[in-house]
Design brief:
The chain is about 45% helix and about 20% strand. By secondary structure, the protein is α+β, with helices and mostly antiparallel strands. The longest helix has 17 residues, at about 160-175.
């Protein structure tokens, strides 16, 4: 089963249940590259100690990114010796872009050839990759969000965001209080960003996320204040949702590490 950004949050509870109930798991990780052309003492050598080999390999692979993780979860068959049921998933990943966090990474020609040979789907990687971040990036994002510095910029194209605001503004001119409109095709982390920008720009609207997209409601300023104070969508809740969504696959991977399978 292939899992992308549009399915990940819905699949997460089942995936966690499978991992926690497993006897062991197996991982296969694909990168956009493996080794840089290091020189001199930085080159990997057959004579390296294990600790030296690890540090050199780690330093080399850091300028690439993970594009896919294959996970197989094995659970023993009750009453059967050495028999297991396996559940397998492919996760397509893409680095989180949020605020000033905008990762740079390289491609290595030999790695691209290898991925092509085995039918790797670049559209799923580039268009629908699950966001993720490392521990250092997570600390930086958490600090910015909790200190109110999360209103920095949208990862959406600015022209696209202007079109969304213009569409809602034109609708507001004709709508009455209590009317709804739908912005289809917006989901996941992108949906949080759209709602944040709309709520900041327009004081007489309220937004909610539904399966069909972002729903916008025309409200009075007084009702808007009431919703902000009493709704589970108030800012403190939003910050937690933003952090969870921005962490993406990192949430699942950290759980996988703690499970020690």
């Amino acid at each position: 089963m292939d899992v992308g950004a549009d399915q990940f949050e819905q699949s997460l509870p089942l995936l966690q249940e499978l991992v926690l109930g497993a006897d062991f798991v197996g991982l296969d990780i694909e990168f956009t590259g493996l080794r840089t052309n290091l020189s001199g003492s930085q080159q990997i050598s057959l004579f390296d100690l294990p600790s030296e080999w690890y540090l050199k390999t780690r330093r080399s692979v850091q300028q690439f990114t993970i594009c896919q993780i294959g996970l197989s979860v094995f659970s023993s068959v009750e009453g059967e010796s050495n028999k297991y049921i396996a559940h397998s998933c492919n996760f397509f990943l893409f680095p989180t872009t949020f605020g000033m966090l905008d990762s740079e990474f390289s491609f290595q020609a030999s790695s691209v050839q290898f991925l092509n040979q085995y039918g790797f789907d670049y559209n799923k990687f580039l268009k629908n990759g699950i966001p993720y971040m490392n521990e250092e990036q997570e600390k930086r994002i958490k600090h910015n969000v909790l200190n109110g510095n999360w209103r920095v910029r949208s990862s959406l194209d600015k022209d696209q965001m202007k079109l969304v605001i213009n569409e809602v503004t034109q609708w507001l001119n004709l709508a009455e209080e209590g009317d709804w409109m739908t912005l289809p095709g917006i989901a996941g982390f992108q949906a949080f960003e759209v709602q944040l920008v709309l709520r900041q720009a327009l004081p007489n609207i309220w937004t909610v996320l539904r399966d069909q997209g972002v729903m916008v409601k025309k409200v009075s300023r007084q009702h808007r204040w009431y919703l902000e104070e009493n709704s589970c969508d108030r800012e403190s809740c939003w910050k937690e949702k933003i952090l969870l969504s921005a962490r993406g696959f990192s949430v699942f991977f950290q759980m996988l590490v703690k499970a020690q399978k």
